[in-house]
Amino acid sequence: MRYEERFESVLKSAATVFARRGYQRASIRDVAKAAGMSVAGLYYYCKSKEELLFAVCYHSFDVLLQSLHRSLKGVSDPKEQLHIFIVNHFEYFLTYVEAMKVVSHEAGMLTGEFDARVTEIKRQYYLRCQQIVQLLLGEPDAESPRLRTTTLALFGMINWVYTWYRPGRDEDAKGLADGMTELFLHGVGPQAAVGNGQEVGNDGEREARRGAG
Amino acid sequence: MRYEERFESVLKSAATVFARRGYQRASIRDVAKAAGMSVAGLYYYCKSKEELLFAVCYHSFDVLLQSLHRSLKGVSDPKEQLHIFIVNHFEYFLTYVEAMKVVSHEAGMLTGEFDARVTEIKRQYYLRCQQIVQLLLGEPDAESPRLRTTTLALFGMINWVYTWYRPGRDEDAKGLADGMTELFLHGVGPQAAVGNGQEVGNDGEREARRGAG
DNA sequence: TTACCGTTCGATCGCTCGCTCGAAAACACA
DNA sequence: TGTGTTTTCGAGCGAGCGATCGAACGGTAA
Q1: Cα angle value B172/B175/B161 (rounded, 5°)
Q2: Does some domain include residue A195?
Q3: Which of A121, A174, B54, B74 is deepest in the core (most CB within 10 A)?
């Protein structure tokens, strides 16, 4: 009981430190300090640094997937499914920013069994999303390249958010999800069809620093 | 002359090693070995490991931006501009996969002046893209949240590619760019409007491992 | 040949890393 | 109180890190 609580707090500290410094650069000493214990004490709760990264990643996908299944239960309209998928993603994202940043950015550092298990649960998440996109496209072939590309484009849109999102400046999960859903369903909109050649001033250069590359 | 050639080959080796192992995990000894020289010899061409990362990132954006400006010259149709932007991005991406992976994944590790300079050139790239999206949206306000979100969604789509692209399996730059342009302009298509509740089998689970998180 | 200079390297520095150990502290229950 | 278990830690291991230094190499011009 006490152990479980302490372990979760260790995971949270690890997520924070890994998110801030990057998995490689973050030292086990940083994590220990953040968790308020000694290095040796930290190792009472994990076998290795990599296991910490694994735990953060796996736990994140686990919660994300369970929440998704719960929210999608009984919903049959593909457009609604899409919206729910995106909302669910962003809500988890905004609640556990650090963990999601680690998942998005550092999961690839895992090796062996850790890698295999995270890859597997990631794949479940991907496939659930692909099912939705398949319905949207009216695509009969699950192996279709277009289905793959489109699904991965959607993942790009929503996963990239961790590189630029700023609480306060940007909308909340719901608003962001609405915008992205609309964009994915209908594109930038009918205005796109005009083809006028007017130039636009380059004001508004403030605060575009992140997320561009 | 000889120096320049050697330096570029060092950059290329650095990009490869950083892409494969990650910047932090990659040691200066790995880079030296890949470049075919000793550690001390490598330091004749750079002042620090971080300077190597900076050089890779900055050089990439430099080439990308110059190529973009060249391609956009004289084009006034926003839709055509968008297509050119995406094609340019993917063509560079597929030609210099390693460098682009480093740029996308590791540029955030830079600090101080290195960070400032890469952030600045990244911002130029972002703003050029934002201009195009602004035309497409018919958006008068350059500070509009919608403009920001939409532009960054586009960046997400095209930047995420490095996590899943596989030569051979996936389309070439042109094909990929056509698909993404179409998706960004018009969404998943009119089929999306039906709202039918039909279920879809979960075949096609092979090879979805990457890019999902 | 000699002198020069851009280039390369072996050896090594000081430091931090992930991780471990045996002992002690904190706790639970008698 | 004493006893056994769970949790914590100071000290330190070997390895690898980024970076440096003075010496030596190799081509060129006199």
Answers
A1: 65
A2: no
A3: B54
